[in-house]
Design brief:
Blueprint (H helix, E strand, L loop, with lengths): L4 H24 L7 H16 L8 H16 L1 H20 L17 H23 L3 H17 L6 H19 L6 H20 L11 H19 L24 E7 L5 E8 L1 E3 L2 E3 L3 H5 L2 H9 L7 H9 L8 E7 L40 E6 L7 H8 L4 H20 L5 H11 L1 E2 L10 H15 L1 E2 L11 H9 L1 E2 L1 H14 L4 E9 L1 H5 L6 E5 L3 E9 L3 E5 L24 E2 L16 H49 L6 H18 L21 H16 L6 H21 L2 H9 L4
Parallel strand pairs: 8-9
Antiparallel strand pairs: 1-5, 1-11, 2-10, 3-4, 5-6, 7-14, 10-12, 12-13
Length: 754
């Protein structure tokens, strides 16, 4: 049996493929098993196949290894089954980090890593045999499925994986390309053709490392990812932008937009005023409200699984709390039907009074931030059950939950798990905004045993600040160059509901109270008063609204109105009258006293400061744009001037004086040669013949001799001689242009001006 170099090369290739594929699988799924044993068994299987290749027993290794795998399954069915369940659970958990939902669990038993190791070893053997088959008999049927799986995994899991994993996936894919298109019987042309996209893929998936969730993302990557996701959502569900709802993106907010087009059609058996909640912003950063990412949500998958098993949903928490504390407050069951006519189909717009027996609640959802529609295009028609407006009775409900009964204790024990989730994720604010609020709102005292400021005092202070220092104005300019919330509070100090809701949510969080930014639609108390049972209410774009919701321990999320024109639109539980200042303040810890220099400020300086705060970034932007325009004009002018000279130069090739034309043509030819890499030397032109292609050298030497005659000997030149030099120039230019890439072509045209 002869083990030649080609056979060894095939075994090495199959071994590398096996090691790459098994390592990628084990590390992607974060399996608690070393890749060593699966890889070793796979390499051993490939080696036995390689040793018998070309003999009458070439079929034996494959059959023996597959029989061994089958016997292992039959001898250890429980271990293998449990290991397979562990592998599938790990795959589900990894997918869950991309799409945060609770999926079916395979309930694997805890036997350490024995079952999982056994299954991976079996997979290693199969992988080794498959890789050896790919090397021995390359085919599209083996190549394309694995190539597509690897490429899809690299793109899909780029936010979760490390750069080295992406690089390993790309290298494995490159090796697959080489195996498929670089075999003994393959020509070099297909190999070159396929290695180019493979190398491009290597660069692309490596660049995807900056998409990794733990990496510092380049702004361009974040912007591109957000833009792509937003465009995809608009294509799938439509948008609320026409109604003035930006879905949390405050970066381009300008004058308030609205429309008279119908967005929703709402029918109720009992007409009641409702906040219909849609988009909910959970985290604020860089002038944008966004939702918690899937990786963060997946960490609490078990929590929400058991909450939903116990019948607890955050979207219906208010009515569930009422049933536990004061069941008679739920006077009737209001059946609400919503027809989504023009609003985004991504959400199911439902009120805070949603009942827990509504079909729209999704048991697989993690986070319970809002109701998300199912289906590729969302849902355009749906119904749910809701109570009457019990938000106005929240104080009575909160007091009832303090009474220790079997129902309240059971409810609060369940709510405690969601309460921890809420405080973990909905109290964070950026450091610069926290510093500003500390300066403006001052410190605050917490009641004994509390982790946050008193609810009533916090709401009073927020209303005082927003009604005293902020002016409601719908015709505002976009905020550019600074943070949206900070510029609104400390710069422009004017805006409408999206501005107020953003600021209020951050203020609640400053006081230690969980809060979120919400967009949706209103059925106002006037709307409800003019409706009859079963009548359909067209909710147009003027009912689109943004508000803040805060979390009251036990009760759940409650809307709080802070935008002045909407104070009387909805029913209220309390009214804040004669608000004259901030209450409950306390000195900030470790904050040095600042000298009061209010009286020392010069009015002119203050006016300039206010002008700069409002228009400084606009001035800078205008200056930068002007500078860019000037530079672009100078560059364009130079390009046009040089291109005109080039046209004049080429026109001289056809002048009446053939000798002067030959001189111009030959000089142009030498410039082309220098542009493509010929080094200029102090030597006769004949010495440059080595830079010419073999078939052009004789023509070049003739052209050089004609140029010397035309330039230095003063002989009259013929038209035929000019044409011969011109043909050489054209051929050299054609080859130079054909072999140049895009970058080299741009250099030839706009740097060398040839």
């Amino acid at each position: 049996m002869r083990f030649n170099g080609a056979r060894f090369g095939g075994l090495l290739t199959a071994s590398l493929l096996t090691a790459g594929l098994m390592t990628l699988l084990i590390t992607l799924l974060s399996l608690p098993v070393s890749p060593l044993w699966p890889v070793l068994l796979g390499v051993l299987a490939a080696a036995t196949v390689c040793l018998t290749e070309g003999t009458r027993l070439s079929w034996l290794p494959d059959a023996a290894w597959m029989a061994g795998c089958l016997l292992t399954v039959l001898a250890l069915p429980g271990t293998v089954t449990n290991g397979l369940a562990q592998l599938l659970d790990a795959a589900v958990q990894t997918w869950q980090q991309l799409h945060a939902r609770n999926y079916t669990s395979f309930l694997a038993q805890d036997d350490g890593a024995a079952g999982l190791t056994a299954v991976l070893c079996l997979l290693g053997v199969v992988c080794g045999l498959w890789c050896m088959a790919c090397v021995r008999r390359p085919s599209d049927l083996r190549f394309w499925p694995m190539a597509l799986v690897l490429a899809a995994a690299a793109v899909l899991f780029a936010p979760l994986t490390a750069v080295w994993w992406l690089l390993l996936a790309a290298l494995t894919l490159l090796l697959l390309y080489a195996v498929r298109f670089g075999g003994r019987h393959a020509s070099s042309a297909p190999l070159r053709a396929w290695l180019r996209p493979a190398a491009l893929l290597l660069a692309c998936v490596t660049a995807l490392g900056c998409w990794n969730g733990d990496a510092a993302h380049p702004a361009a990557v974040d912007t591109a990812a957000r833009w792509t996701a937003a465009r995809a959502d608009i294509l799938r569900y439509g948008s609320n932008a026409a109604a003035g709802l930006p879905e949390g993106d405050m970066t381009g907010i300008g004058p308030r937009r609205t429309t008279e087009d119908t967005m929703l059609e709402v029918t109720m058996t009992q007409p009641i005023s409702y906040y219909l909640r849609g988009f909910v912003g959970e985290t604020y950063a860089n002038s944008r409200w966004s939702t918690l990412d899937s990786k963060t949500l997946s960490e609490d998958a078990d929590t929400f699984y058991w909450l939903h098993q116990d019948g607890f949903y955050a979207q219906s928490q208010l009515t569930t709390a009422a049933q536990a504390g004061v069941s008679d407050v739920l006077r009737y069951d209001n059946t609400v039907t919503v027809q989504n006519v023009g609003a985004s189909g991504k959400y199911l717009y439902a009120p805070y009074e949603l009942l827990a027996d509504s079909d729209v609640l999704d048991a697989a959802q993690i986070g319970d931030r809002t109701l998300l529609a199912s289906g590729l295009r969302g849902q355009r028609s749906y119904s749910f059950h809701a109570s009457d407006n019990i938000i106005t009775q929240y104080q009575r409900l909160a007091a009832a939950l303090l009474e220790e009964t079997e129902q309240t204790n059971a409810f609060l024990n369940t709510e405690a798990a969601y309460n921890r989730f809420v405080y973990d994720h909905y109290t964070d604010i950026p450091d610069d905004i926290r510093g500003f609020l500390e300066e403006k709102l001052g410190g605050y005292e917490k009641d004994a045993g509390q982790v946050h400021f008193d609810y009533q005092r916090a709401k009073q202070n927020i209303l005082f600040y927003l009604t005293t220092y902020i002016t409601y104005e719908e015709n505002v300019l976009p905020i550019t160059g600074g943070d949206f919330a900070l510029t609104f509070l400390d710069g422009t100090q004017s805006g409408y509901d999206v501005h107020y809701a953003t600021a209020a949510a951050l203020m609640f969080r400053y006081y230690g109270i969980p809060a979120r930014y919400v967009e949706g639609f209103l059925v106002t108390k006037d709307d409800a008063a003019h409706m009859t049972a079963g009548q359909t209410l067209p909710v147009d774009g003027s009912r689109a609204h943004a508000w803040v919701e805060y979390y009251q321990d036990g009760l759940g999320w409650l809307p709080f109105e802070v935008t002045p024109p909407y104070f009387s639109a909805m029913e209220k539980a309390e009214r804040y009258q004669s608000i004259s200042g901030l209450v409950g303040q306390a000195p900030l810890e470790d904050t040095p006293e600042q000298p009061d220099d209010t009286d020392a400020r010069d009015p002119v300086t203050e006016a300039l400061r206010e002008l700069w705060l409002k228009h400084g970034m606009t001035v800078l932007l205008v200056l930068l744009v002007s500078l860019a325009v000037v530079l672009a004009a100078v560059l364009l002018g130079r390009i046009l001037r040089e291109r005109r000279r080039t046209r004049q130069r080429k026109a001289s090739f056809f002048g009446a004086d053939a000798a002067a034309a030959i001189d111009a043509i030959f000089r142009y030819t030498m410039d082309v040669l220098r542009a493509r890499g010929m080094a200029a030397r102090n030597c006769p032109p004949e010495d440059y013949v080595a830079y010419m292609d073999q078939d052009l050298r004789e023509d070049y030497l003739l052209a050089a001799r004609l140029w010397q005659e035309a330039r230095f000997r003063g002989r009259p030149m013929t038209e035929e001689q000019r044409r011969r030099v011109l043909r050489l120039k054209d051929e050299i230019w054609r080859r130079t242009w054909h072999n140049a890439g895009l970058r080299q072509r741009l250099r030839l045209k706009y740097v060398e001006f040839l």
